[in-house]
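Sorry to interrupt, but I need a hand with the structure work. I would like you to pick a protein and set down its sequence and fold. Please put the record directly below this note.
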Amino acid sequence: MDQKIISLAAEKTADRLQEFLQSLKDNDLANLLQNQAVKGKAAGALLRAIFKGSPCSEEAGALRRLKIYICGIHLVESGDLQKEVASEIIGLLMLEAHNFPGPLLVELAREFVGAIEEGSLTNGKSLELLPIILTALVANKENLAYGKGVLSGEECKKQLINTLCSGRWDRQYVIQLTSMFKDVPLTAEEVEFVMEKVLRMFSKLNLQEIPPLVYQLLVLSSKGSRRRALEGIITFFSELDKQHNEEQSGDELLDLVTVPSGELRHVEGTVILHIVFAIKLDCELGRELLKHLKAGQDFSNNICPFSIALLLSVTRIQRYEEQVFDLLKASVVKSFKDLQLLQGSKFLQNLVTQRSCVSTMILEVVKNSVHSWDHVTQGLVEFGFILMDSYGPKKILDGKTIETSSSLSKIPNQHACKLGANILLETFKIHEMIRQEILEQVLNRVVTRASSPISHYLDLLSSIIMYAPLVLQSCSSKVTETFDYLSFLPLQTVQGLLKAVQVHVDVHSRYNSVANETFCLEIIDSLRRCLGQQADVRLMLYEGFYDVLRRNSQLANSIMQTLLSQLKQFYEPEPDVLPPLKLEACILTEGDRISLQEPLDYLLCCVQHCLVWYKSRVMPLQQEEEEEEGFYQDLEDMLESVTSRMIKSELEDFELDKSADFSQNSGVGIKNNICASLVMGICEVLIEYNFSISNFSKNKFEEVLSLFMCYKKLSDILNEKAGKGKAKTANKMDSFLSMKFVSDLLTALFRDSTQSHEESLSVLRSSNEFMRYAVSVALQKVQQLKETGHVSGPDGQNPEKIFQNLCDITRVLLWRYTSIPTSVEDLGKKEKGKSISLLCLEGLQKIFSAVQQFYQPKIHHFLRALDVTDNEGEEAEGSVSHRAAFQIRQFQRCLLNLLSQEEDFDSKEALLLVTVLSNLSRLLEPSSPQFVQMLSWTLKICKENSWEDASFCKGLMNLLFSLHVLYKSPVTLLRDLSQDIHGHLGDIDQDIEVEKTNHFAMVNLRTAAPTVCLLVLSQAEKVLEEVDWLITKLKGQVSQEILSEEASSQATLPNHPVEKAIIMQLGTLLTFFHELVQTALPSGSCVDILLKDLCKMYTILTALVRYYLQVCQSSGGILKNMEKLVKLSGSHLTPLCYSFISYIQNKSQSLTCTGEKKGKAPAVATAMARVLRETKPIPNLIFAIEQYEKFLIHLSKKSKVNLMQHMKLSTSRDFKIKGNILDVVLREDEDDNEGTASEHEGQNKEPAKKKRKKEMKCLS
């Protein structure tokens, strides 16, 4: 039969074929086609013949064609056919689709939709036909019956897609169905509909099926809805990551569908690659990605580890690189700023939940990148360096880093820089392939940025080498090249570099010694070339010898011998020769240039430390090898001889008496300064040495005191001779006393009560100068720690040892200050300089600050170390807040005692106590009762004490505000203080007498302005900043809701508490400004800042009005409280602002006129400058008020609430001639002209101009 059909089809006309096919039953024909197809016998030819004999022009033929077409679909779908046969049938069916009439195309499409919904597809191969059928349907121009109505082909297609996307999809065909839609002609609305369906299917698929589906979705997105596609993918993986993290952090064992980390990360990596590839082909997709992530930084899951990894991969596309890094930088800094704002305000903490920080997400990306995310790694490295370059310390001045950014942005910038370093370090740890590149880039920056601070790069270098010492060998050529530049680099850079590489030297024993030795020889060769050029580098060598000796005791003999031979070059061997050291040999004179050739003080310091260590650690173990002890005996004898002869020497022996020249302008003066610093350094070294070996011998302590007197004489002469502006030259020198020795010395002086030590210690205790010196050196060491993070001398780089010494020093200083207050100390004696107790207090203040800066995790151990009554067993008891509160109570008592001394009130000590209390209060947990007690105490002191000392008042008020903001918003405090200020300074209208409120006794006529006034304005600015931040957050949320289709009238309800809080804050601030704009503030900064803050107030009121305009747009309304706020602003602020402006202008005019009448040019210039400065913010304020009123009018129209009924029309600021004033001024000018005409005949033109200016000012 099949042969007959095929042979009939070969005839020129199809008449006989049609007749034959007409005679057959449709089922027989279908069975025949099926049998032939399964056998693989000429199924294509048979199908072609059947279609030829079934023309669509006849109804029977069209129906037969439909049945056979459907049969062909079922055959292809059955999976029984050979691949070639199935492909041939699909090809034929595709060609024939366009020949079908409209109704049959609808029928075919419905067949497909039904099969998909029922899940009756077997392999989905036939889905290739659906786009052809739908395309043919769109091309069909006739109206078709569909359901109960008649639709065009386009509308039928829309209905079919609607039905298809509303129905159930078998998950195994999701990818094929998505792929199919790319060939269907779709409108934007249909694309969105399909997109939503596909995105809903993500959660129903296996993880491994997601990447191919994402690929198809991205191809489909070229038709539209790119942003929705990206948003859906990012949200899916964000939720998946969150769920995965929760599962991993869960305590219970999870036997559920836990996805292995590796599998999830590999899938994410593949998806990211697909998106990046799609962006390369479709620029619009890249633009939409950036738009989407910029838009929702605050209020959605847009920024998440997955989207960050995606962005970092996109940086490999050049056109997006800069934009992406800028976006990531902005996100990081914004995140840190938001965190800073939240942590510093209880008001914000109560309203806003803290989201996870972007920095945490980025470090999570670094951790995830271990799963073959090579496309992310390069972006991570670049971003790490961008953060370090952009937010590192900026300038160097006199060897110190200067922070150029404002104090508010300082901490976020520091965090951003630290994040950059963490990204690089963690990436370095995970990816061996990229280690060399990171190290080379760090070394490049160390060498090329010598003029900028590079401490952050040196810290990173140190961490890198600490983690993987052998990395230095893998880039040995780069390291040796860097060392070749040493002689051209600043000393700080050289020190940092050597200290970082020193870690490598410490761990040699674990690795290949031959390779290390060769590498070290190369570095030493580079170092040797530097030693001849910089005395400073040799100085570093002496500092390092002691550390090397302690780590490698077998090198002791060679090191000590080297030091001995070096010292002999400058030692006078004759016992009667004074002085005992050749200072002249240490100084190099080249023409007019005089410089230090040999740092003899550092050499001697190194000798004494090495000798003391050797005697205590090595000699007890080497009793047999007595012949080697000759070196040490020689060194001991030399130090003993130097000590005795230094004591005998007079300043004249060094040519450094009072008559010597110490000016920095002459060669002799420079030489004498160098000699003096060497002698002082040597004295300090010998003080430490003799104390260390003294074993509490009275004779030794007498020698120590004699050495100190030599040091003191020179120090006094230097201070006296240095002259004005350089009076602190001597104090700038770093002390040679080690921190451990300072700790031991202070403990001995103040806390040693051993009976056998009493007689010898009384020698040192008898000298107040010496005890003051010991405390001063402790202060200097702590200051050095604060500025550089380390101290000079042995163990100065060891954080653990420094911390232990800090604890010991603090314990002594605390005891000394609390036991002997300044009021008791030295009664009747009036010595120069600060008392020891005051120095102790200053030291405590510096230590508390330094410990919080460098030892935050060890605060508990620190506070425990201060508690002398603490027993070992009580370690677990007592929280940080509890222990800090104990110390706070001691200082509170001290301050109260000080405040009770009405005659001898020491404001410097009071201010130091307030600073100490501020430092300690930071250790209190804001929710603890100790914190509340501290706040109540501070509030009580401010309310009850009325000391007229501006600096003490400022310190105490700052403490009050710093505590109050962590407890609740300070707006009511500000309102009370503004009433006090108004009461003390009086009203701008002199006829009005203001009632004094006296909420705070601390506010008085002396402190009200500028001290307290500037403080409260500064706090008001912070409150305004918080409110502004909240309004921005609310606006963003409303924008998101307007964009999403789900937005409803209830969508804004969750914002009501935040809105109420904002309105309450602004309402209270409004009453605060209401008081200040009526206050007769003195000219200067108070007026200037008040005008600027008023401008901010109106700008933020405008922002709130604009927010409500958005709310009204999304069918929301305005709160009743908002209406009250607008009413308050109209009645209590705006009119008073205009009165205040008039007050300032009148005051300015009288100031200018007074200056002109005095006739002195400088007075006039100063007056004019002040007038200009104070009146400059006025136009900005007027503009801000007018903008506020303009948007209020808009809001009134939108909300149908008349908000303008409470607003008075703004005062006209136009130019206006006042006749009465004009007459007075003209008469004054005539009088002036008559009196001065004869004196200024030749200069009439210039004064005339000035007079006209004066007239304009007085008239306007």
In short: The first strand starts at residue 144 and ends at 146. The chain has a mean pLDDT of 80. The radius of gyration is 43 Å. DSSP finds 54 helices and six strands in the chain.
